[in-house]
């Protein structure tokens, strides 16, 4: 599980800490806290979404095979070209990466500030932004990857079946819900909302792409679609307003109703002429409620009003569409007619050692016994310190570690956390064993987020140390991330076997 850029320590040792080093990829989080790890403040989130962080360019190159064309999932915009890649991090998580043209955002601080603003949004209806990268001329955004294509693909270019009526209502409601959440969070502006911005996750649930919360460049155009679908006020002044977003949502409603991309002016003429049924998608073959369709057409008509002040707000969208939801007991992937997107956890390819077996059973007591017996032998290697370094501060730090070891042995895990934290916070020496021990203490105190962070830090100090991977596997399992935990356990077993072979 990659946790830092290439400047990370490569050698097992008790070494002096580089205060300029920063861990670039932050751990998963399952609460709403704000944490600081190795100098980077991260926004912790709900539901197993990674905390927002800065990625190194090397991380993203590795994830995309150096931005290979084989990893491109979309390209758009002649005036402000940008490309979206899919990629896979070393921790096996799939990501979507939006790569802007060179110098689209000349000021890296401005780009970072914008990204951090969007990164604070966390919601189940969004394909959430999990990070960014500023490196030289490169400006990249990193988001959760949605594996089941776009609304445009399912609506306009379907191969097996068209989207059924209840699912179309669900799409409209979920996107209204997303817009209402973002408006309440102070991010009401969304650039170029259209059927390509609506994505389907591994469960087939529709989500709104977070990329639309940032323009394609600092001064770039906010809309890349045909002028016929652009809010009229944007054509007048070039500015996006909350009301412009409502207009664009109206065009998405028309898409859902008609199954075609119809210019709003043409659709409004037909709605006024009471020709609603002529606008309905013929592929539905009449399998829809006329009453519900009339409600949606009326809402679309209000969204597409020429005067911005006559359009509804996001709360109106939510409250209008919520009563139309039915088939709540049917999963989205079933309604879409697609298989549920799951990757089976890999079975261990190597016989498990006592440590591996204890971790696979999540037997924290057995793990504790193994760490007590192992002591600090994995820290041996380059533990030479000059005479000048044996200061009083050094002696105090080593005394804190000794007190932590005694508390750890005696199973006083909260005291061990406090003592090990004193050792770590001084920062003169870095011990992977201390991080592993504190990680287990956090697990025994029911703090898996903190345990995962310490496991990642232990790996950062000693990249090939199986124990660092083992404690991460247990923490991921505690966070209900079973597939990631299985991957991590298998990787730990592989590293442990390689080490045994070298002996």
Overview of this protein structure:
Residues 70-325 form the Protein kinase domain. Its main location: membrane. GO terms for molecular function: ATP binding; protein serine/threonine kinase activity. Helices cover 44% and strands 10% of the residues. It is α+β, with helices and mostly antiparallel strands. Helix 12 packs antiparallel against helix 13 and helix 15 packs antiparallel against helix 16 (432-444). The two termini are 24 Å apart.
Fill in the keyword field for this structure.
single chain; 503 residues; alpha+beta; six-stranded mixed beta sheet; three-stranded mixed beta sheet; 44% helix; disordered N terminus; kinase; brassinosteroid signaling pathway; transferase; ATP binding; ATP-binding
Give the SSE map:
Elements: E1 34-37, E2 40-43, E3 53-54, H1 57-63, E4 72-76, E5 82-88, E6 94-100, H2 108-119, E7 126-127, E8 129-135, E9 138-144, H3 151-156, H4 165-184, E10 198-200, E11 206-209, H5 232-237, H6 242-258, H7 264-272, H8 276-279, H9 290-303, H10 314-321, H11 332-336, H12 354-360, H13 364-374, H14 392-409, H15 413-426, H16 432-444, H17 448-461, H18 466-478, H19 482-502
Parallel strand pairs: 3-8, 7-11
Antiparallel strand pairs: 1-2, 4-5, 5-6, 6-9, 8-9, 10-11
Helix pairs in contact: 4-6, 4-10, 6-9, 12-13, 12-18, 13-16, 14-15, 15-16, 16-17, 16-18, 17-18, 18-19
Structural class computed from helices and strand pairing: alpha+beta
Helix content: 40-55%
The assembly state of the depicted protein chains is single chain
Number of DSSP E strands: 11
Q: Going across the major beta sheet, what is the strand order?
A: 3-8-9-6-5-4
Shape, principal axes of CA atoms: elongated
Q: What is the rounded distance between the termini?
A: 24 Å
> Whole-number radius of gyration?
26 Å
The number of helices is 19
The main sheet comes to: 6 strands, mixed
Proportion in β-strands: 5-15%
């Amino acid at each position: 599980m990659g946790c830092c850029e290439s400047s990370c320590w490569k050698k097992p040792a008790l070494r002096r800490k580089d205060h300029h080093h920063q861990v670039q990829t932050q751990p998963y989080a399952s609460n709403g806290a704000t944490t600081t790890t190795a100098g980077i403040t991260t926004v912790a989130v709900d539901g197993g979404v990674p905390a927002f962080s800065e990625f190194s360019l090397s991380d993203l190159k590795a994830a995309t095979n150096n931005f290979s064309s084989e990893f491109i999932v979309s390209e758009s915009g002649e005036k402000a070209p940008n490309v979206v890649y899919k990629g896979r991090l070393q921790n096996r998580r799939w990501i979507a990466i939006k790569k802007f043209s060179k110098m689209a955002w000349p000021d890296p601080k401005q780009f970072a500030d914008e990204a951090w603003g969007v990164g604070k949004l966390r919601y189940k209806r969004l394909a959430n932004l999990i990070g960014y990268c500023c490196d030289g001329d490169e400006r990249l955004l990193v988001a959760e990857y949605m594996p089941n294509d776009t609304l445009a693909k399912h609506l306009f270019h379907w191969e097996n079946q068209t989207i059924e009526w209840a699912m179309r209502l669900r799409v409209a409601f979920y996107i209204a819900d997303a817009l209402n959440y973002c408006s309440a969070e102070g991010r009401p502006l969304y650039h170029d909302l259209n059927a390509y911005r609506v994505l389907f996750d591994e469960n087939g649930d529709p989500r709104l792409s977070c990329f639309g919360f940032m323009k394609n460049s600092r001064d770039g155009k906010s809309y890349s679609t045909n002028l016929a679908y652009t809010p009229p006020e944007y054509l007048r002044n070039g500015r996006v307003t909350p009301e412009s977003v409502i207009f664009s949502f109206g065009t998405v409603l028309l898409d859902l109703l008609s199954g075609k991309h119809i210019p709003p002016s043409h659709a409004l003429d037909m709605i006024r002429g009471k020709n609603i049924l002529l606008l309905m998608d013929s592929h539905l073959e009449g399998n829809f409620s006329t009453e519900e369709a009339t409600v949606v057409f009326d809402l679309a008509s209000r969204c597409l009003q020429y005067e911005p002040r006559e359009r509804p707000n996001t709360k109106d969208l939510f409250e209008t569409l919520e009563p139309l939801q039915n088939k709540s007991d049917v999963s989205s992937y079933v309604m879409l007619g697609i298989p549920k997107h799951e990757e089976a956890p890999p079975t261990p390819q190597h016989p498990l050692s006592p440590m591996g077996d204890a971790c696979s059973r999540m037997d924290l007591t057995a793990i504790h016994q193994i760490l007590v017996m192992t002591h600090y032998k994995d820290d041996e290697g380059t533990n030479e310190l000059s005479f000048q370094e044996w200061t009083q501060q050094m002696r105090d730090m080593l005394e804190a570690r000794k007190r932590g070891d005694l508390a750890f042995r005696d199973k006083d895990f909260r005291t061990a956390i406090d003592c090990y934290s004193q050792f770590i916070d001084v920062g003169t020496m870095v011990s992977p064993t201390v991080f592993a021990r504190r990680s287990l203490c956090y697990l025994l105190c029911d703090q898996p987020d903190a345990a995962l962070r310490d496991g990642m830090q232990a790996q950062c100090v000693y990249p090939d140390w199986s124990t660092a991977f083992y404690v991460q596997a247990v923490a991921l399992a505690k966070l209900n991330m079973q597939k990631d935990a299985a991957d991590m356990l298998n990787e730990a077993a592989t590293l442990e076997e390689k080490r045994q072979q070298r002996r």
